[in-house]
Every structure is written in C-alpha cells, then in structure tokens.
Amino acid sequence: MSFDYQRTNIYELYADLHLIDKSKNKYGVLSMIQLNYPELYKTASYINGKWLNVDKTFPVYNPYDGNEIAQVADCDAEDAKAAIRAADEAFKVWSNYSASKRSRILKKWYQLQIQHAKDLAQLLTTEQGKPITEAVGEIRYGASFVEWFAEEARRVYGDVIPGHGSDKRITVIKQPVGVVGAITPWNFPSAMITRKVAPALAAGCTVVIKPSELTPLSALALAQLAEEAGFPAGVLNIVTSQNPQAIGEELTSNRKVKKISFTGSTRVGKLLLRQSADQVKKVSLELGGNAPFIVFDDADIDAAVDGCIASKFRNAGQTCICTNRIFVQKSVYNEFIEKLSPKIKALKLGNGLEQGVQVGPMINENALLKDERLIADATSKGASIVIGGSRKEGLFFEPTLICDLNPDMDIFREEIFGPLAAVYTFDTEEEVIQLANNTNYGLAAYFYGRDYARVWRIAEALEYGMVGINTGMISTAVAPFGGVKESGFGREGSHYGINDYLNIKYMCWGGVK
Ligand code: SIN
After folding, report:
1. Which residues are catalytic?
2. Whose CA is nearest to atom 5 of ligand 1?
3. Yes or no: domain 291-438+444-476 corresponds to CATH 3.30.70.120
4. What CATH code would you report for 45-52+75-286?
5. What are the pLDDT digits (tens) for 416-447?
6. Residues with Cβ within 8 Å of residue 58, at least 6 apart in sequence
C-alpha cells in the first residue's frame, strides 16, 4: 500500500484508514513508519500473551532526524517479575511439547518474518538508522537463526557411555535450562533477539527479553509475529523499559531465571556476570571487540580493500565484529591506501530509508563524542587524517581514514564503534601477531594472504573466537559466533548454539545383571 503522507500525522492517518487499531497502540504517537502490515507497529509490552499498557512511557527517536516515532511502555521491576512468573508457568507446558511441535511453531515464526521482511526492515531502519538494504539483510539473517534452530530442535541428542562396572549403564540426556533472560542491543535490534531466542525456544526454554530502550519497536514486531505463529502465552515475553538497570537486576536476582544471555558492552557484561554470580546462573556474553584486519604482502589487494570496506563500514561501524585496527604490511601499504581511499570517499551518507545510502547516522550523541575523542587523542600523538574526520549535521560522522597510528593511542585499545578506518603498518609476521593479540578483547579477526602455511599459522595464532580468512563477512547462522578473553563466552548459532540453553544430566544405572 502506498499513499501520500505527512511526516507528523501518519499515525492519525493510519488510524483514520483503520490500518492501526488505536486501542492496541495506546502509546502510538507520531509514527512516520509506512507499513503494509500496521499490526507490526506495537508500543505496549508483551507479557504472558497480552499487550500490556503501563502508566509510564518513554520516547523512541529516529536517529536520522531526531523525530519521535513512538511512546513505548516503560515497565519496571514488578512488570519484569510478572513476565518471569509467566515464563516460569509457560515452561511447564512448552518444555513438554514434542520437539517437532516446537519446531513447527518456530518454522511458522520464521516464515512470518520472511513474509514481513520489508516492513520489519522499515521499522528497524527508522528506529536504528542503518541503510534499508542492511536492514533487510538483518531481518533475513535474524530469521535464518529461527529456521536453523527450528531444525536443531529435533536434534538434541543424548548419549550412551560404556559403564564403569559390569552391572553399570550410563545414559546422558539434555534438558532445557528453564527461564532465560535475554538482554539485547540496539545495533542489531532484530537479529540479536532471534539469535538468542530461537535456540532457547528450540531447546524448550521460555524467555523474557529486555530489548534496548533505543530500539524496542523491532522487538515488539517480532512478538506480534510470535503470537501469530502460535507460541503459547508466556513462552516469549518482552519487557520494554528505559531503565535497563532495574530490569537487569530483576533478571539476575530472580531465582526463577536460570540463564542470562547478553549482547552488548564489556562493561555491562561484567556487571551482569557479577550480579549472576550470587545464584551461579548460567551466563552467555557476547561483548565488545577490537578486531584486527591484517593485509599481508601476498594478498589480493583489491579483495582486501573490498573486505575492509564491508567489515569496517557495516552499520556505520557500529558492530562488535567491525574491523577496528587495519594492519598493512609495509611493501603493500601505498597500494592498499590508494585503492581504499576512493572507496571510502564514495560512501554515501544519508537517510537509511533512501535507496543507495550506504552509511546511516550514528545511534546517538555519545557515539559521535567518542569518535571525536579518539581522533583528537590520535592526532595529538601524531596521527594524520587522510579522509573525513568530522561530524556532520545531525548524528552523522564522515567516513574517515586515519593513518600514522601506534599502540599508545586510545584508538588502538578501544572499540571504535564508528566509521573510522584506522591503519597501521608492520614488517613481519611475528610483529603483527603480537600487535593483533595486544588487546583484552578477542571476538573477531580478519586477514588476507595467500601463502598456505602462513595462513594456517596466523589463523591458529590469533587469540580470537572468529577468524575471517580472505573475507570480511563472517556472520551466518550456521557458524558458532562468540569470543574469548573480555569479549565474552558462549556461542550463538550453529549446532553448538543450542548447548548454551541445555543442561546435561547423566543417569548411572546400577544392578544391571
Ligand atoms: C554484533 O555486532 O554483536 C553482531 C554482529 C553480527 O552478528 O554480525
């Protein structure tokens, strides 16, 4: 459906056209979001199969123009408690469904996400800012976890182990851990939910999700589709709140919650880990990164440049696996910079909803301040800006190329989370391995080269959970995503991903004579 609309009254227009039921969108305000299926625009929390309007609300803004796009239910710890209670009750039912029944409902959820991919992407870009093509990519990527784990639900196999005595038999079964608290970030408002929730539900767990307060609309749209897919009440709950601390404290202190899964900053991850320690809860953490991107002298430089652009500027540099430090061997440095520079200059900034835009706005003012701080620190210590280097109107930051860097600069140590390509040089393999591993982070690393033996050596020597070899794009539902060191632990995706939501129990059978 398409019709003329004025930015400021599209919500009223939808309502007039009966495309939005105002009673279900008590807080729906000035939405600029044109959806083919307006039911996806939800602003109430979703608890125990009901859309819950609470007294307080908080605003959600479009980072492109700062316009308010929704007023969303501002839940408190009591609401989180109610969601946990509902999830605990629902666990008794859901965990007893056959694996194939759970699988069928997950499959349906997947199909609905694909069917509504365009609308989900519109919502996502409007609240998060990323280009619409990336948003469509995220929706498909997110849905692929649901499809994958719908299949894995049927493959939660046990084991039979030869017993330790002639009358002994040992069997091993895997059981769902129980209620899961999933705390998800703003940079992937949809895919980081499905990547946690799909394996949890496939395993037989139930979930309470706290989406980022910056991007709750994508989460609520997923809940709408989950309801349509047929999940029983209480299996999937969404608690929206602008007070993540209060919800996090309830999730980590409530004994009914058996596991916490978090994607976000290392600082908050450590806090949740400490809070979970009291009850020795199971925890999975996908935290910050400081990805090296190494270019050796025998690399295909054109391919390396393309891989660098893809992994550096995806989501305006706001992903945990974005290239953070580019190390180029001295003999190919000039060629690499000559080929990289025009590609950075050509990147088109703008409204993510416009076709052709490649770099959207940053999420908020703090993100811009961080980039400015990192640049100021680096230039004060001798770095040179080759391209860009400044913020633009609104929340935009110019795609930037910064060179002449060294490990004494903040930009070497910190996760940039912005569109700054930071280039270093190196001479030898030993030197670059030392540089690449000289960080507390250990999420993703990339390198380009062709020497077969060196490729193996480097891949093994990098202290990272994921290594891209001659590619800058490593994200897929079929591989285990996760880090080492202060980038966290646990794996998401692949056949490993469901293990984080299962307890292993062994049974020792005696007296078998
Ligand atoms: C992240 O930034 O945390 C996720 C990136 C991805 O899944 O590709």
Report:
1. 286, 320
2. 319
3. no
4. 3.40.605.10
5. 999 999 999 999 999 999 999 999 999 999 99
6. 71, 72, 74, 213, 241, 242
